[in-house]
Protein backbone atom coordinates (compact mmCIF):
# COMPACT_ATOMS: atom_id res chain seq x y z
CA UNK A 1 0.00 0.00 0.00
CA UNK A 2 1.53 3.26 -1.08
CA UNK A 3 1.47 6.18 1.34
CA UNK A 4 -1.12 8.91 0.81
CA UNK A 5 -0.03 11.52 -1.69
CA UNK A 6 -1.47 14.98 -2.04
CA UNK A 7 -1.19 17.78 -4.52
CA UNK A 8 -0.69 21.19 -2.94
CA UNK A 9 -3.71 23.07 -1.68
CA UNK A 10 -4.84 25.69 -4.15
CA UNK A 11 -5.90 28.97 -2.56
CA UNK A 12 -8.07 31.66 -4.18
CA UNK A 13 -7.47 35.18 -2.96
CA UNK A 14 -8.91 38.55 -4.06
CA UNK A 15 -6.49 40.54 -6.17
CA UNK A 16 -5.26 44.09 -5.72
CA UNK A 17 -2.71 46.36 -7.37
CA UNK A 18 -0.41 46.30 -4.32
CA UNK A 19 2.94 44.65 -5.02
CA UNK A 20 3.61 41.23 -3.51
CA UNK A 21 3.65 40.28 -0.64
CA UNK A 22 1.04 42.96 0.14
CA UNK A 23 -1.16 42.06 -2.83
CA UNK A 24 -3.31 40.06 -0.39
CA UNK A 25 -5.46 42.55 1.53
CA UNK A 26 -8.89 41.12 2.40
CA UNK A 27 -9.53 40.51 6.12
CA UNK A 28 -11.36 37.32 5.14
CA UNK A 29 -8.87 35.77 2.73
CA UNK A 30 -5.90 36.71 4.91
CA UNK A 31 -7.29 34.38 7.60
CA UNK A 32 -6.72 31.44 5.26
CA UNK A 33 -3.32 32.72 4.13
CA UNK A 34 -2.20 32.97 7.74
CA UNK A 35 -3.23 29.37 8.36
CA UNK A 36 -1.44 28.04 5.27
CA UNK A 37 1.74 29.89 6.17
CA UNK A 38 1.64 29.13 9.90
CA UNK A 39 0.97 25.43 9.35
CA UNK A 40 3.61 25.27 6.57
CA UNK A 41 1.12 23.73 4.17
CA UNK A 42 2.47 23.76 0.60
CA UNK A 43 0.10 25.78 -1.58
CA UNK A 44 -0.41 27.38 -4.90
CA UNK A 45 -2.49 30.53 -5.25
CA UNK A 46 -4.52 32.54 -7.75
CA UNK A 47 -5.53 36.14 -7.32
CA UNK A 48 -9.08 36.66 -8.59
CA UNK A 49 -10.80 39.89 -9.60
CA UNK A 50 -14.13 40.63 -7.88
CA UNK A 51 -16.39 40.06 -10.91
CA UNK A 52 -14.81 36.63 -11.44
CA UNK A 53 -15.61 35.28 -7.97
CA UNK A 54 -19.13 34.09 -8.72
CA UNK A 55 -18.22 32.35 -12.03
CA UNK A 56 -15.21 30.76 -10.32
CA UNK A 57 -17.22 29.35 -7.41
CA UNK A 58 -19.98 28.20 -9.73
CA UNK A 59 -17.44 26.33 -11.86
CA UNK A 60 -16.14 24.66 -8.68
CA UNK A 61 -19.70 23.68 -7.67
CA UNK A 62 -19.39 25.70 -4.48
CA UNK A 63 -22.93 26.80 -3.59
CA UNK A 64 -23.92 30.31 -2.54
CA UNK A 65 -23.14 30.94 1.14
CA UNK A 66 -26.37 32.78 1.81
CA UNK A 67 -29.14 34.59 0.04
CA UNK A 68 -27.89 37.98 1.21
CA UNK A 69 -26.01 40.79 -0.42
CA UNK A 70 -22.76 38.81 -0.93
CA UNK A 71 -23.59 35.16 -1.58
CA UNK A 72 -20.32 34.29 -3.36
CA UNK A 73 -17.18 34.96 -1.35
CA UNK A 74 -13.51 34.22 -1.09
CA UNK A 75 -11.42 32.72 0.44
CA UNK A 76 -11.89 29.37 -1.24
CA UNK A 77 -9.57 26.39 -1.48
CA UNK A 78 -9.31 23.26 -3.58
CA UNK A 79 -7.69 20.15 -2.19
CA UNK A 80 -6.99 17.18 -4.51
CA UNK A 81 -6.08 14.28 -2.31
CA UNK A 82 -5.32 10.69 -3.19
CA UNK A 83 -5.74 8.29 -0.34
CA UNK A 84 -5.13 4.57 -0.41
CA UNK A 85 -8.43 2.81 0.07
CA UNK A 86 -8.59 0.35 2.96
CA UNK A 87 -10.84 -2.03 1.03
CA UNK A 88 -8.90 -2.85 -2.10
CA UNK A 89 -5.51 -1.17 -1.84
CA UNK A 90 -6.36 0.90 -4.87
CA UNK A 91 -6.09 4.62 -4.50
CA UNK A 92 -9.10 6.86 -4.24
CA UNK A 93 -9.07 10.41 -5.59
CA UNK A 94 -11.07 13.08 -3.81
CA UNK A 95 -11.42 16.73 -4.47
CA UNK A 96 -12.62 19.10 -1.80
CA UNK A 97 -13.60 22.62 -2.83
CA UNK A 98 -14.90 24.91 -0.08
CA UNK A 99 -15.20 28.55 0.79
CA UNK A 100 -15.96 30.56 3.95
CA UNK A 101 -13.09 31.13 6.31
CA UNK A 102 -14.18 29.09 9.36
CA UNK A 103 -15.07 25.89 7.47
CA UNK A 104 -11.74 26.23 5.63
CA UNK A 105 -9.91 26.62 8.94
CA UNK A 106 -11.56 23.52 10.40
CA UNK A 107 -10.89 21.58 7.22
CA UNK A 108 -7.22 22.52 7.00
CA UNK A 109 -6.61 21.79 10.67
CA UNK A 110 -8.11 18.34 10.21
CA UNK A 111 -6.42 17.57 6.88
CA UNK A 112 -2.97 18.71 8.02
CA UNK A 113 -2.75 17.43 11.58
CA UNK A 114 -0.12 17.55 14.30
CA UNK A 115 2.67 16.69 14.88
CA UNK A 116 3.74 17.57 11.31
CA UNK A 117 1.63 20.72 11.23
CA UNK A 118 0.92 22.78 14.36
CA UNK A 119 -2.76 23.04 15.21
CA UNK A 120 -4.57 26.36 14.85
CA UNK A 121 -6.99 25.13 17.53
CA UNK A 122 -4.36 24.12 20.08
CA UNK A 123 -6.88 23.76 22.92
CA UNK A 124 -9.51 21.84 21.00
CA UNK A 125 -13.14 22.90 21.57
CA UNK A 126 -12.03 25.83 23.75
CA UNK A 127 -10.05 27.23 20.82
CA UNK A 128 -12.97 26.70 18.46
CA UNK A 129 -15.39 28.46 20.85
CA UNK A 130 -12.89 31.27 21.21
CA UNK A 131 -12.52 31.58 17.42
CA UNK A 132 -16.29 31.75 16.88
CA UNK A 133 -16.59 34.43 19.57
CA UNK A 134 -13.71 36.44 18.10
CA UNK A 135 -15.15 36.13 14.60
CA UNK A 136 -18.39 37.63 15.91
CA UNK A 137 -16.50 40.46 17.62
CA UNK A 138 -14.44 41.11 14.46
CA UNK A 139 -17.63 41.28 12.39
CA UNK A 140 -18.77 44.12 14.64
CA UNK A 141 -15.43 45.87 14.05
CA UNK A 142 -15.73 45.37 10.30
CA UNK A 143 -19.19 46.95 10.39
CA UNK A 144 -17.82 49.90 12.34
CA UNK A 145 -14.99 50.26 9.79
CA UNK A 146 -17.07 50.36 6.63
CA UNK A 147 -17.33 54.07 6.03
CA UNK A 148 -13.71 54.55 7.05
CA UNK A 149 -12.08 51.87 4.98
CA UNK A 150 -14.29 50.84 2.03
CA UNK A 151 -13.45 53.98 0.01
CA UNK A 152 -9.76 53.21 0.60
CA UNK A 153 -10.20 49.60 -0.47
CA UNK A 154 -11.37 50.88 -3.85
CA UNK A 155 -8.01 52.65 -4.30
CA UNK A 156 -6.04 49.41 -4.27
CA UNK A 157 -8.27 47.26 -6.51
CA UNK A 158 -7.63 46.28 -10.14
CA UNK A 159 -9.75 48.26 -12.65
CA UNK A 160 -12.38 45.51 -13.15
CA UNK A 161 -12.54 44.99 -9.40
CA UNK A 162 -13.01 48.74 -8.88
CA UNK A 163 -16.05 48.86 -11.15
CA UNK A 164 -17.63 45.86 -9.44
CA UNK A 165 -16.76 46.95 -5.91
CA UNK A 166 -18.07 50.49 -6.38
CA UNK A 167 -21.32 49.35 -7.90
CA UNK A 168 -22.04 46.60 -5.37
CA UNK A 169 -20.96 48.48 -2.24
CA UNK A 170 -22.55 51.81 -3.09
CA UNK A 171 -25.81 50.02 -3.73
CA UNK A 172 -25.61 47.29 -1.08
CA UNK A 173 -23.99 49.10 1.84
CA UNK A 174 -24.30 52.83 1.42
CA UNK A 175 -27.77 53.38 0.04
CA UNK A 176 -26.49 54.64 -3.30
CA UNK A 177 -24.01 57.20 -1.88
CA UNK A 178 -20.72 57.46 -3.74
CA UNK A 179 -17.71 55.93 -1.96
CA UNK A 180 -16.07 59.37 -2.09
CA UNK A 181 -18.96 60.85 -0.13
CA UNK A 182 -19.01 58.11 2.50
CA UNK A 183 -15.50 58.57 3.90
CA UNK A 184 -15.40 61.45 6.40
CA UNK A 185 -12.67 64.06 6.10
CA UNK A 186 -9.30 63.06 7.56
CA UNK A 187 -8.82 64.51 11.02
CA UNK A 188 -12.36 65.87 11.14
CA UNK A 189 -14.95 65.39 13.87
CA UNK A 190 -16.92 62.79 11.95
CA UNK A 191 -13.84 60.65 11.40
CA UNK A 192 -12.98 60.98 15.07
CA UNK A 193 -16.46 59.81 16.10
CA UNK A 194 -16.13 56.77 13.83
CA UNK A 195 -12.69 56.01 15.21
CA UNK A 196 -13.98 56.24 18.77
CA UNK A 197 -16.79 53.79 17.98
CA UNK A 198 -14.36 51.40 16.29
CA UNK A 199 -11.68 51.60 18.95
CA UNK A 200 -14.40 51.08 21.58
CA UNK A 201 -15.31 47.79 19.90
CA UNK A 202 -11.63 46.83 19.78
CA UNK A 203 -11.19 47.40 23.51
CA UNK A 204 -12.21 43.80 24.17
CA UNK A 205 -9.19 42.51 22.22
CA UNK A 206 -6.88 44.73 24.24
CA UNK A 207 -8.34 43.22 27.42
CA UNK A 208 -8.09 39.68 26.10
CA UNK A 209 -4.45 40.08 25.12
CA UNK A 210 -3.74 41.55 28.53
CA UNK A 211 -5.42 38.49 29.99
CA UNK A 212 -6.16 38.85 33.63
CA UNK A 213 -6.56 42.57 33.95
CA UNK A 214 -3.25 42.73 35.78
CA UNK A 215 -1.11 42.76 32.66
CA UNK A 216 0.64 39.61 33.81
CA UNK A 217 0.47 36.80 31.28
CA UNK A 218 2.75 34.68 29.21
CA UNK A 219 2.80 34.97 25.44
CA UNK A 220 1.51 37.53 23.00
CA UNK A 221 -1.39 35.45 21.62
CA UNK A 222 -5.01 35.03 22.74
CA UNK A 223 -4.07 31.50 23.81
CA UNK A 224 -0.85 32.51 25.54
CA UNK A 225 2.38 31.33 23.95
CA UNK A 226 0.84 29.54 20.95
CA UNK A 227 -0.92 31.22 18.06
CA UNK A 228 -4.35 30.02 17.06
CA UNK A 229 -7.05 30.80 14.55
CA UNK A 230 -8.55 33.45 16.86
CA UNK A 231 -5.32 35.45 16.49
CA UNK A 232 -5.45 35.14 12.72
CA UNK A 233 -8.98 36.60 12.68
CA UNK A 234 -7.75 39.71 14.45
CA UNK A 235 -4.50 39.94 12.48
CA UNK A 236 -6.40 39.66 9.16
CA UNK A 237 -8.52 42.58 10.30
CA UNK A 238 -5.46 44.62 11.26
CA UNK A 239 -3.79 43.81 7.93
CA UNK A 240 -6.84 45.14 6.07
CA UNK A 241 -6.06 48.56 7.58
CA UNK A 242 -2.33 48.17 7.09
CA UNK A 243 -2.92 47.63 3.36
CA UNK A 244 -5.69 50.17 2.80
CA UNK A 245 -5.31 52.91 5.39
CA UNK A 246 -1.91 52.96 6.98
CA UNK A 247 -2.66 56.06 9.07
CA UNK A 248 -5.62 54.39 10.79
CA UNK A 249 -3.57 51.21 11.20
CA UNK A 250 -0.89 53.15 13.07
CA UNK A 251 -3.59 54.43 15.41
CA UNK A 252 -4.78 50.88 15.98
CA UNK A 253 -1.29 49.73 16.82
CA UNK A 254 -1.21 52.32 19.58
CA UNK A 255 -4.34 51.05 21.35
CA UNK A 256 -3.98 49.68 24.86
CA UNK A 257 -0.59 48.77 26.22
CA UNK A 258 1.00 47.54 23.00
CA UNK A 259 -0.60 44.09 22.95
CA UNK A 260 -1.98 44.57 19.44
CA UNK A 261 1.44 45.60 18.14
CA UNK A 262 3.11 42.62 19.80
CA UNK A 263 0.53 40.30 18.25
CA UNK A 264 1.03 41.90 14.83
CA UNK A 265 4.80 41.59 15.00
CA UNK A 266 4.57 37.94 16.01
CA UNK A 267 2.25 37.16 13.06
CA UNK A 268 3.72 39.43 10.38
CA UNK A 269 5.73 36.66 8.73
CA UNK A 270 2.56 34.60 8.22
CA UNK A 271 0.68 37.62 6.85
CA UNK A 272 3.28 38.12 4.15
CA UNK A 273 3.95 34.50 3.16
CA UNK A 274 3.04 33.64 -0.40
CA UNK A 275 2.23 30.40 -2.21
CA UNK A 276 3.43 29.63 -5.69
CA UNK A 277 1.41 31.65 -8.22
CA UNK A 278 -0.61 29.46 -10.52
CA UNK A 279 -2.94 30.71 -13.22
CA UNK A 280 -6.56 29.64 -13.12
CA UNK A 281 -8.83 29.61 -16.09
CA UNK A 282 -12.44 30.07 -15.12
CA UNK A 283 -14.55 27.69 -17.15
CA UNK B 1 4.63 24.73 60.94
CA UNK B 2 0.87 24.33 60.99
CA UNK B 3 -0.99 23.94 57.72
CA UNK B 4 -2.74 26.98 56.27
CA UNK B 5 -6.21 27.47 57.65
CA UNK B 6 -8.97 29.48 56.07
CA UNK B 7 -12.36 30.74 57.13
CA UNK B 8 -15.08 30.24 54.53
CA UNK B 9 -15.42 32.75 51.74
CA UNK B 10 -18.19 35.23 52.44
CA UNK B 11 -20.29 36.09 49.40
CA UNK B 12 -22.51 39.18 49.02
CA UNK B 13 -25.49 38.75 46.71
CA UNK B 14 -28.38 41.08 45.83
CA UNK B 15 -31.59 40.13 47.58
CA UNK B 16 -35.02 39.44 46.13
CA UNK B 17 -38.37 38.23 47.41
CA UNK B 18 -38.11 34.92 45.53
CA UNK B 19 -37.90 31.90 47.85
CA UNK B 20 -34.57 30.09 48.17
CA UNK B 21 -32.84 28.72 46.12
CA UNK B 22 -34.17 31.20 43.52
CA UNK B 23 -33.60 34.23 45.75
CA UNK B 24 -30.37 34.82 43.80
CA UNK B 25 -31.31 36.39 40.48
CA UNK B 26 -28.67 38.87 39.25
CA UNK B 27 -26.77 37.79 36.11
CA UNK B 28 -23.64 39.29 37.68
CA UNK B 29 -23.78 37.77 41.17
CA UNK B 30 -24.89 34.38 39.83
CA UNK B 31 -21.52 34.12 38.06
CA UNK B 32 -19.80 34.05 41.43
CA UNK B 33 -22.37 31.70 42.94
CA UNK B 34 -21.83 29.27 40.08
CA UNK B 35 -18.07 29.32 40.71
CA UNK B 36 -18.42 28.74 44.46
CA UNK B 37 -20.81 25.84 43.91
CA UNK B 38 -18.92 24.27 41.01
CA UNK B 39 -15.56 24.45 42.78
CA UNK B 40 -17.13 23.21 46.05
CA UNK B 41 -15.70 26.16 47.96
CA UNK B 42 -17.27 26.40 51.43
CA UNK B 43 -19.01 29.77 51.73
CA UNK B 44 -21.34 31.87 53.77
CA UNK B 45 -23.59 34.41 52.12
CA UNK B 46 -25.53 37.59 52.82
CA UNK B 47 -28.32 38.96 50.67
CA UNK B 48 -28.05 42.75 50.42
CA UNK B 49 -30.71 45.25 49.44
CA UNK B 50 -29.78 47.66 46.62
CA UNK B 51 -29.51 50.84 48.75
CA UNK B 52 -27.10 49.04 51.10
CA UNK B 53 -24.55 48.10 48.42
CA UNK B 54 -22.61 51.37 48.47
CA UNK B 55 -22.37 51.60 52.30
CA UNK B 56 -21.36 47.93 52.41
CA UNK B 57 -18.55 48.28 49.87
CA UNK B 58 -17.37 51.51 51.47
CA UNK B 59 -17.17 49.77 54.85
CA UNK B 60 -15.09 47.04 53.21
CA UNK B 61 -12.77 49.63 51.63
CA UNK B 62 -13.69 48.40 48.16
CA UNK B 63 -13.28 51.40 45.84
CA UNK B 64 -15.79 52.47 43.18
CA UNK B 65 -15.45 50.36 40.03
CA UNK B 66 -15.86 53.30 37.69
CA UNK B 67 -17.18 56.84 37.62
CA UNK B 68 -20.23 55.83 35.62
CA UNK B 69 -23.85 55.29 36.46
CA UNK B 70 -23.27 52.24 38.70
CA UNK B 71 -19.94 52.63 40.51
CA UNK B 72 -20.75 50.25 43.41
CA UNK B 73 -21.71 46.75 42.39
CA UNK B 74 -22.13 43.22 43.62
CA UNK B 75 -20.95 40.45 43.56
CA UNK B 76 -18.33 40.99 46.24
CA UNK B 77 -16.48 38.49 48.38
CA UNK B 78 -14.40 38.58 51.54
CA UNK B 79 -11.71 36.01 52.13
CA UNK B 80 -9.98 35.82 55.54
CA UNK B 81 -6.96 33.62 55.13
CA UNK B 82 -4.29 32.69 57.62
CA UNK B 83 -1.10 31.49 56.09
CA UNK B 84 2.02 30.35 57.90
CA UNK B 85 4.81 32.82 57.20
CA UNK B 86 7.95 31.29 55.69
CA UNK B 87 10.21 33.62 57.65
CA UNK B 88 9.30 33.02 61.27
CA UNK B 89 6.78 30.18 61.37
CA UNK B 90 4.24 32.58 62.83
CA UNK B 91 0.97 32.88 61.05
CA UNK B 92 -0.01 35.89 58.98
CA UNK B 93 -3.62 36.98 58.62
CA UNK B 94 -4.78 38.50 55.36
CA UNK B 95 -8.16 39.70 54.30
CA UNK B 96 -9.07 40.08 50.68
CA UNK B 97 -12.24 41.99 49.81
CA UNK B 98 -13.03 42.43 46.12
CA UNK B 99 -15.93 42.98 43.80
CA UNK B 100 -16.49 42.73 40.02
CA UNK B 101 -17.18 39.29 38.65
CA UNK B 102 -14.06 38.65 36.53
CA UNK B 103 -11.49 39.68 39.19
CA UNK B 104 -13.43 37.50 41.66
CA UNK B 105 -13.32 34.58 39.23
CA UNK B 106 -9.56 34.92 38.74
CA UNK B 107 -9.03 35.28 42.48
CA UNK B 108 -11.10 32.23 43.41
CA UNK B 109 -9.50 30.06 40.77
CA UNK B 110 -6.07 31.01 42.09
CA UNK B 111 -6.94 30.73 45.80
CA UNK B 112 -8.70 27.36 45.43
CA UNK B 113 -6.51 25.49 42.96
CA UNK B 114 -6.60 22.04 41.41
CA UNK B 115 -6.52 19.15 42.13
CA UNK B 116 -8.75 19.81 45.17
CA UNK B 117 -10.95 22.27 43.29
CA UNK B 118 -11.61 21.97 39.55
CA UNK B 119 -10.42 24.98 37.57
CA UNK B 120 -12.92 27.32 35.95
CA UNK B 121 -10.22 28.18 33.40
CA UNK B 122 -9.34 24.61 32.44
CA UNK B 123 -7.35 25.65 29.37
CA UNK B 124 -5.39 28.46 30.97
CA UNK B 125 -5.01 31.66 28.92
CA UNK B 126 -7.31 30.28 26.20
CA UNK B 127 -10.11 29.94 28.76
CA UNK B 128 -9.44 33.44 30.09
CA UNK B 129 -9.51 34.94 26.58
CA UNK B 130 -12.72 33.04 25.89
CA UNK B 131 -14.28 34.32 29.13
CA UNK B 132 -13.42 37.95 28.35
CA UNK B 133 -14.88 37.58 24.85
CA UNK B 134 -18.05 35.94 26.19
CA UNK B 135 -18.41 38.60 28.88
CA UNK B 136 -18.32 41.24 26.12
CA UNK B 137 -20.92 39.35 24.09
CA UNK B 138 -23.13 38.90 27.17
CA UNK B 139 -22.93 42.64 27.88
CA UNK B 140 -24.41 43.23 24.44
CA UNK B 141 -27.22 40.77 25.27
CA UNK B 142 -27.86 42.49 28.60
CA UNK B 143 -28.14 45.84 26.81
CA UNK B 144 -30.62 44.33 24.36
CA UNK B 145 -32.62 42.90 27.27
CA UNK B 146 -33.03 46.05 29.30
CA UNK B 147 -36.45 47.18 28.21
CA UNK B 148 -37.72 43.61 28.26
CA UNK B 149 -36.50 42.53 31.64
CA UNK B 150 -35.79 45.53 33.89
CA UNK B 151 -39.50 46.15 34.60
CA UNK B 152 -39.80 42.48 35.57
CA UNK B 153 -36.75 42.69 37.83
CA UNK B 154 -38.58 45.34 39.85
CA UNK B 155 -41.37 42.83 40.55
CA UNK B 156 -39.09 40.48 42.46
CA UNK B 157 -37.15 43.01 44.58
CA UNK B 158 -37.60 43.75 48.28
CA UNK B 159 -39.50 47.01 48.98
CA UNK B 160 -36.35 49.08 49.71
CA UNK B 161 -34.66 47.63 46.64
CA UNK B 162 -37.71 48.48 44.52
CA UNK B 163 -37.58 52.15 45.47
CA UNK B 164 -33.85 52.35 44.74
CA UNK B 165 -34.01 50.33 41.53
CA UNK B 166 -36.91 52.30 40.07
CA UNK B 167 -35.33 55.64 40.84
CA UNK B 168 -31.84 54.77 39.57
CA UNK B 169 -32.88 52.84 36.44
CA UNK B 170 -35.64 55.19 35.32
CA UNK B 171 -33.20 58.07 35.59
CA UNK B 172 -29.98 56.34 34.49
CA UNK B 173 -31.21 54.00 31.74
CA UNK B 174 -34.59 55.09 30.49
CA UNK B 175 -34.42 58.88 30.36
CA UNK B 176 -36.98 59.30 33.11
CA UNK B 177 -39.61 56.96 31.61
CA UNK B 178 -41.47 54.82 34.13
CA UNK B 179 -40.50 51.13 34.18
CA UNK B 180 -44.15 50.31 33.40
CA UNK B 181 -43.95 52.35 30.21
CA UNK B 182 -40.65 50.84 29.06
CA UNK B 183 -41.74 47.21 28.77
CA UNK B 184 -43.57 46.61 25.48
CA UNK B 185 -46.86 44.74 25.52
CA UNK B 186 -46.60 40.95 25.71
CA UNK B 187 -46.96 39.36 22.32
CA UNK B 188 -47.00 42.71 20.52
CA UNK B 189 -44.89 43.84 17.59
CA UNK B 190 -42.54 45.94 19.68
CA UNK B 191 -41.76 43.03 21.99
CA UNK B 192 -41.18 40.81 18.97
CA UNK B 193 -38.71 43.30 17.49
CA UNK B 194 -36.81 43.40 20.78
CA UNK B 195 -36.79 39.62 20.98
CA UNK B 196 -35.47 39.36 17.42
CA UNK B 197 -32.62 41.77 18.23
CA UNK B 198 -31.80 39.87 21.42
CA UNK B 199 -31.99 36.41 19.88
CA UNK B 200 -29.84 37.68 17.00
CA UNK B 201 -27.13 38.61 19.50
CA UNK B 202 -27.49 35.19 21.15
CA UNK B 203 -26.97 33.38 17.85
CA UNK B 204 -23.22 33.41 18.44
CA UNK B 205 -23.63 31.26 21.58
CA UNK B 206 -25.72 28.76 19.67
CA UNK B 207 -22.91 28.50 17.10
CA UNK B 208 -20.24 28.21 19.76
CA UNK B 209 -22.05 25.42 21.58
CA UNK B 210 -22.52 23.64 18.26
CA UNK B 211 -18.80 24.01 17.77
CA UNK B 212 -17.72 23.25 14.28
CA UNK B 213 -20.79 24.11 12.30
CA UNK B 214 -21.42 20.42 11.73
CA UNK B 215 -23.12 19.80 15.03
CA UNK B 216 -20.54 17.19 15.93
CA UNK B 217 -18.75 17.91 19.17
CA UNK B 218 -18.20 16.38 22.52
CA UNK B 219 -19.65 17.92 25.64
CA UNK B 220 -22.30 20.50 26.29
CA UNK B 221 -19.96 23.30 27.42
CA UNK B 222 -18.09 26.00 25.51
CA UNK B 223 -14.90 24.12 26.32
CA UNK B 224 -16.26 20.69 25.41
CA UNK B 225 -16.71 18.26 28.27
CA UNK B 226 -15.57 20.56 31.09
CA UNK B 227 -17.44 23.59 32.34
CA UNK B 228 -15.58 26.87 32.60
CA UNK B 229 -16.21 30.45 33.62
CA UNK B 230 -17.40 31.31 30.08
CA UNK B 231 -20.32 28.92 30.59
CA UNK B 232 -21.18 30.53 33.90
CA UNK B 233 -21.39 33.95 32.24
CA UNK B 234 -24.01 32.66 29.84
CA UNK B 235 -25.87 30.61 32.44
CA UNK B 236 -26.03 33.61 34.81
CA UNK B 237 -27.64 35.56 31.98
CA UNK B 238 -30.12 32.77 31.28
CA UNK B 239 -30.97 32.50 34.99
CA UNK B 240 -31.76 36.23 35.09
CA UNK B 241 -34.61 35.51 32.64
CA UNK B 242 -35.59 32.29 34.39
CA UNK B 243 -36.08 34.25 37.63
CA UNK B 244 -37.66 37.41 36.20
CA UNK B 245 -39.43 36.48 32.97
CA UNK B 246 -40.07 32.80 32.65
CA UNK B 247 -41.94 33.17 29.35
CA UNK B 248 -38.97 34.82 27.64
CA UNK B 249 -36.66 32.25 29.24
CA UNK B 250 -38.65 29.43 27.66
CA UNK B 251 -38.21 31.12 24.29
CA UNK B 252 -34.47 31.33 24.88
CA UNK B 253 -34.28 27.67 25.74
CA UNK B 254 -35.76 26.91 22.33
CA UNK B 255 -33.08 28.77 20.36
CA UNK B 256 -30.87 26.78 18.02
CA UNK B 257 -30.69 23.02 18.28
CA UNK B 258 -31.11 22.68 22.04
CA UNK B 259 -27.53 23.57 22.99
CA UNK B 260 -28.63 26.31 25.38
CA UNK B 261 -31.04 23.95 27.14
CA UNK B 262 -28.38 21.26 27.46
CA UNK B 263 -25.97 23.82 28.93
CA UNK B 264 -28.63 25.04 31.36
CA UNK B 265 -29.48 21.54 32.51
CA UNK B 266 -25.82 20.69 33.07
CA UNK B 267 -25.32 23.83 35.20
CA UNK B 268 -28.66 24.01 37.03
CA UNK B 269 -27.33 22.41 40.20
CA UNK B 270 -24.64 25.09 40.49
CA UNK B 271 -27.19 27.86 39.84
CA UNK B 272 -29.30 26.71 42.77
CA UNK B 273 -26.56 25.91 45.29
CA UNK B 274 -26.62 28.02 48.43
CA UNK B 275 -24.02 28.93 51.03
CA UNK B 276 -24.79 29.15 54.72
CA UNK B 277 -26.75 32.31 55.42
CA UNK B 278 -24.88 34.71 57.67
CA UNK B 279 -26.11 38.11 58.75
CA UNK B 280 -23.96 41.12 57.99
CA UNK B 281 -24.15 44.37 59.84
CA UNK B 282 -23.12 47.28 57.68
CA UNK B 283 -20.96 49.60 59.71
Automatic annotation (TrEMBL), chains A, B:
InterPro entries: Glutathione-S-Trfase_C_sf, Glutathione_S-Trfase_N, GST_UstS-like_C, Thioredoxin-like_sf
Organism: Polytolypa hystricis (strain UAMH7299)
Gene3D superfamilies xrefs: 1.20.1050.10, Glutaredoxin (3.40.30.10)
Domain Glutathione S-transferase UstS-like C-terminal: 133-270
Lineage: Eukaryota, Fungi, Dikarya, Ascomycota, Pezizomycotina
Protein name, entry field: Uncharacterized protein
GST N-terminal domain ranges (all copies): 25-110
Source organism, top-level taxon: Eukaryota
Amino acid sequence: MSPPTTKPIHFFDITSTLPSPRQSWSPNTLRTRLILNYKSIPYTQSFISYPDIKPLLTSLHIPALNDGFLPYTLPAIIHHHHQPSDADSSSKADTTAINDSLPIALYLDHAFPTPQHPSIFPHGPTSISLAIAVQHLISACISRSRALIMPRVWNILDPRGQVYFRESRERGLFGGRRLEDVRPEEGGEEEEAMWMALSGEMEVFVKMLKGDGEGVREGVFFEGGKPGYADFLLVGFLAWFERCDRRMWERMMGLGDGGLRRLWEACEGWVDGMGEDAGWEIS
